[in-house]
Write a structure and sequence with these properties.
Order of helices and strands: EEEEEEHEEEEEEEEHEEEEEEEHE
Helix content: under 10%
Number of strands: 22
Structural class: mainly beta
Radius of gyration: 44 Å
Oligomer: single chain
């Protein structure tokens, strides 16, 4: 009759009869999560003994996976969404990591150094979303859920250019003093203003932006001078251009006179009747006519 004596893992010289030769099972006590050794000694009916030591690893948990920042700043803009977003992190070496972004779940394996990555080409609509990761290690232990908050922002609001020089017309005095172009855009957006050959960039504060152009930067006189503006929001989305046309008019044509009293000679009858002085000037202009003390 063979007997097996178990020692270790909390057993204290427990015995199993080997009469039947069949597989037998005994239950170990509660084990702590560390390496253990079980010693098995077999004694046959002749009294011969053999001892075998088995080292066991007790692994009942796995580390929480980690995730790096998504799209660098946890904000996914239109270019990043179009190209696809790579979510990366760490977990136990060899662990299977289920990564969920929006309605898509992908499973990847952590490398020997514990790193993992998962590329997502299908992403949620604009707004806040959460990325989650759950790791299952090689022993089958499942981690808690790791999360990271992410915002999908693929639209930049169009900037607005407000009325320039109060009436969209720049005269000589206004040009000499310099003209401020202003408007609205998303707070924090970088606003590029192009007027003629000058290109300037300002940041919108509390939704407002303003940029001054000096006399040297303002284009020459023209009936249509276009100011172009585009905005790049803090997520990196670039708006389409908006424009506003203005008139630059810093010169006035010299007025002309018609002959006075037909021949520039006023006789008694003409003086008594009154004399009309006439001529030509820019349409809509105000003409001051002085004659003598009048």
């Amino acid at each position: 009759q063979a007997r097996e004596v178990l020692h270790g893992l909390g057993f204290e010289d427990d015995r199993i009869d080997g009469d039947t030769g069949a597989l037998q099972t005994i239950t170990a006590p509660t084990l702590s999560a560390q390496d253990k050794t079980i010693n098995i000694k077999a004694v046959d009916t002749a009294g011969n003994e053999t001892i075998r030591a088995i080292k066991l690893t007790i692994d009942t948990s796995t580390a929480l996976p980690t995730m790096g920042a998504v799209a660098t700043d946890n904000v996914i803009n239109v270019a990043e969404k179009t190209a696809g977003v790579n979510v990366t992190g760490t977990a136990e070496a060899g662990a299977s990591v289920a990564v969920t972004l929006g309605a898509t779940t992908q499973t990847v394996k952590a490398s020997a150094t514990g790193t993992w990555s998962s590329m997502f080409s299908t992403l949620p609509s604009d707004g806040p979303t959460t990325v989650t990761a759950v790791a299952t290690d090689v022993a089958g232990n499942i981690s808690s859920i790791a999360t990271r908050s992410v915002t999908v922002d693929t639209v930049s609001t169009l900037p607005v250019i407000e009325t320039v020089a109060s009436d969209e017309r720049i005269n000589a005095a206004e040009k000499a003093a310099g003209v401020t172009v202003s408007g609205t855009a998303e707070t924090g957006a970088s606003v590029e203003i192009q007027w003629g050959a000058s290109v300037k960039t300002v940041t919108a504060t509390n939704g407002q932006w303003a940029q001054e152009f000096t006399a040297d930067e303002i284009p020459a006189d023209t009936a249509t001078s276009s100011i172009q503006v585009k905005a790049t929001d803090i997520a990196g989305n670039v708006s389409t251009h908006v424009s506003r046309d203005v008139v630059i008019d810093t010169l006035i044509a010299k007025p002309t006179f018609a002959d006075v009293a037909i021949n520039d000679v006023i006789n008694s009858a003409e003086k008594t009747a009154g004399v009309v002085v006439s001529g030509a000037a820019e349409a809509g202009s105000s003409v001051a006519v002085t004659w003598g003390a009048i």
